[in-house]
Specification:
Layout: E1 4-11, H1 15-19, E2 26-27, H2 29-42, H3 47-62, E3 67-74, H4 80-97, E4 102-107, H5 112-120, E5 125-130, H6 137-155, H7 157-177, H8 181-197, H9 201-217, H10 219-246, H11 251-280, H12 285-310, H13 317-342
Parallel strand pairs: 1-3, 1-4, 4-5
Antiparallel strand pairs: 2-3
Helix pairs in contact: 2-3, 4-5, 6-7, 7-8, 9-10, 10-11, 11-12, 12-13
Length: 343
């Protein structure tokens, strides 16, 4: 007794319905040859044409030894759940008329991972024929891997910020600053890598949340936060301009020049930032004062160290005094914090 075999070609995105006069399911050798011919004439580059012709070829090869039928079923242009429901509906119609012992699936490879579980739930799959156009064979796997990665990125907000957010910032900067934007782009990428590398995501997220909250509830604090950021950027610019003007190629003199010309501007930015934070959190005045005192001592220390780097003739006395002062300030700060906790 001959086995009953169904050779099945699946067009999940319904190119057949959109590009030809046929509607799925298309059953029989004659209709499938006509379908493939019409589809090929309307769109010679469509891989479904090759898949349908391959299904007809398999039908002819197996027709002598088996009771065989060939059919093409279609999904929907939006793919997804809607396409899968249509595929199941059409397959059920075929199985009502032709009850096969097994199915030979012919596919262009684009949707194997989606359709195989659907088909195997209805009938036994004997074999799978994958048809790939030779010219695109080496690129097809890369194409679908890239397609799945983009889809996954869109569904994952955190990943989307990296995959789409950073390139978007780069493109915007290029449109505004042309070639100079390279430095901005490298700076943005470097900042992102620094944050990820040192696990500072929580700190950054907390800062953004604080900025957002102050915009809604504490407008004065929000203004001071923005002013602090602006002054911080000015400090960076001032230090950069000093480095360029010095023309030094010695790394420690470069670092010293940058710090010497920007450190107190950074301190001003810190003071304004802390004042804004104190407005948002008025009960934390002791911590705010401690932060300002600590910031001043650190700035004084960095300024003294940078002065030694760029002006060795100044000697180390001021630097050692800065270390002693900074140490005393830190001890005082810890003492005030401990007293505040005990109260």
């Amino acid at each position: 007794m001959k086995k009953r075999i169904l050779v099945l070609c699946v067009d999940r995105d319904d190119d057949v319905g959109r590009k030809t006069s046929f509607k799925g399911p298309v059953i029989g050798r004659k209709d499938n040859v006509s379908l493939a011919t019409e589809l090929g004439l309307n769109d010679p580059e469509d891989s479904d044409t090759n898949a349908i012709f391959e299904a007809v070829k398999v039908h002819d090869e197996l027709s002598k030894a088996s009771d065989i039928e060939v059919a093409t079923i279609t999904g929907h242009k939006e793919e997804g759940l809607r396409a899968d429901r249509e595929i199941i509906k059409q397959l059920d119609k075929i199985l009502e008329k032709f009850k096969p012992d097994g199915i030979v699936v012919v596919s262009d490879g684009a949707s194997d991972e989606y359709i195989m579980p659907l088909l195997s739930s209805k009938a036994s799959i004997i074999s799978v024929r994958r048809v790939v156009i030779r010219q695109s064979e080496r690129y097809e796997g890369l194409y679908f891997a890239l397609q799945n990665f983009i889809r996954h990125s869109l569904d994952n907000p955190r990943l989307a910020r990296v995959v789409f957010g950073l390139p978007a910032i780069a493109l915007i900067l290029f449109s505004l600053f042309d070639v100079v934007a390279w430095r901005f782009v490298i700076g943005v990428v470097g900042t992102f890598m620094f944050v990820k590398g040192f696990g500072l995501e929580g700190l950054v997220a907390g800062s953004i949340k604080e900025l957002s909250t102050s915009l809604r509830t504490k407008k004065t604090a929000f203004f001071l936060y923005i002013a602090a950021i602006a002054i911080g950027l000015i400090a960076v610019l001032r230090g950069y301009e000093a480095v360029v003007a010095s023309g030094s190629e010695i790394w420690y003199k470069t670092v010293g020049t940058f710090a010497y010309n920007s450190v107190y501007i950074f301190f001003l930015s810190e003071v304004i930032l802390v004042v804004g934070w104190l407005i948002s959190h008025p009960n934390n005045y002791r911590q705010a004062v401690n932060l300002i005192i600590l910031g001043f001592s650190l700035n004084f220390l960095l300024y003294s160290a940078s002065e030694v780097f760029i002006l060795p003739s100044k000697g180390l006395l001021t630097f050692f005094l800065a270390i002693i002062l900074g140490f005393l300030v830190i001890i005082t700060t810890f003492a005030l914090e401990s007293k505040g906790r005990s109260e």
